[in-house]
């Protein structure tokens, strides 16, 4: 299960995380975002070496703007508090995992 972020939890869960973090910048009205939820929840259960989180861009537009998120879904991969990869758009699980591994390489 992914962790839902707020401005109060973003620093502790993402920027100060000991392990890499994937932030799913999402919106309730976004069909591709909804399509990715089961994939992210599955990966969260399979991978304990990566934290999977989500942030509602409508509720927290300031954080989305800080990371230049212009379309949903956007997935930003953080390592040691720094963004190391940005994946834009929905994709099948196999491709998402491949793109994620590339971002973490």
UniProtKB/TrEMBL annotation:
CDD domains cross-referenced by the UniProt entry: TRX_family (cd02947)
Native species: Svornostia abyssi
InterPro entries registered for this protein in UniProt: Thioredoxin, Thioredoxin-like_sf, Thioredoxin_CS, Thioredoxin_domain
Pfam families: Thioredoxin
UniProt name for this protein: Thioredoxin
Signal peptide interval: none
Keyword Membrane: no
Record family assignment: Belongs to the thioredoxin family.
Domain Thioredoxin: 1-105
UniProt KW keywords: Disulfide bond, Electron transport, Redox-active center, Transport
Domain of life: Bacteria
